[in-house]
Write a structure and sequence with these properties.
about 350 residues, binds iron/sulfur cluster, Lambda Exonuclease, Chain A, six-stranded mixed β-sheet, 10 helices
Length: about 350
Amino acid sequence: MDDFGFGLGLEESEIQEMVARFDDPRIGIHTLTEFLYCPRAGLVSHEQQHEDQGEDRPPIYLDYLPQYDLTQMAAAWDERFRKLLISGATMALVPFTLLLGSWWLVPVLIWECLLGIWTFKLGRDLWRLALQIRLAEKAHAWKPDPTSHNEQSVDWWQLLKAGFVSHQYLEPLQESVWQLSGKPWRVLAYENMRIPVFRYHQYSGQLYPQHRARMAAYCRLIERTTGARSPYGIILLGNTFQGTTIPNSQDNQQRFQQGVFAFRKMVRELKRERQIPEAPPPGMCFHCPLGQPRVFRKGYTETYQAKKPLPPTLVRGRDRRRYHSACGDRFCWLPPHEKARDKKRTSKWFGLFGK
Ligand code: SF4
């Protein structure tokens, strides 16, 4: 793979345009991915200076259990098992306090109920951890073919069994020629290979060009900053241990490089002419998180541009509350998001902005 992308469908002059000038901002891989979906999303992400986390918006887990690291899972199992023994012994001993007098009955019952709930949660965690540890231990070692140009199905535990070692980078990788920065969710090390891993939580059966471009960007970053080989990356799908390889192919490099070129062009033009990108076809806004209306709360929900809050573009909902969205604030409009448009819904969003 050549350094500057010649032969990947870009003209030499276009490649030169991608080389960062002294006043060009750094491009985050997360921003680039958003930009490839929608130029307005890329601009919002760029101005909000989101740091790449190597994953899309993860679901919120209230009961955290380690999942992808066998050592952490074993430690969590030991810790919870110890607590289960203690709570079980306490539950067995507490009724003896009734020997002190019957007026203890109510506090003892309340205490037993609370302890019972806690013990139940511990038991449930232990059961989940035991299932996952068993899954990890039963996996057969398997490695993808690094020379293949096809996407290959992978299993996280099979990779670790085959000798890949998972690393979590604390700081983003930075590349100076194109001024790129990004941090994969994990990097798997095997001999002289470093394989970036991205987690796609919202996976619904399909990968899009921006995901392939993102992987090509991570591979380039790794190759340029560590000197290791990065022949493919891995996307873990949904919240599972299954995923697919994305080869660091010419096609994917081309998608990524065209994205860098177009993004740089947009930022430079914006500096000169202050012309904002066109809105995409309405269907793209339908599920876009940046266009989703949310209740405006001063001091909490503002949209930021270069660390300063933007004046919100407010719309009053049928419930009389004031709503805004990140994209709406930035481009002073009401994005056609499903929650702003769908009048057939019977949820609290019903007819939010319509008659
Ligand atoms: S709401 Fe629409 S225009 Fe705004 S960022 Fe999302 S897709 Fe782009």
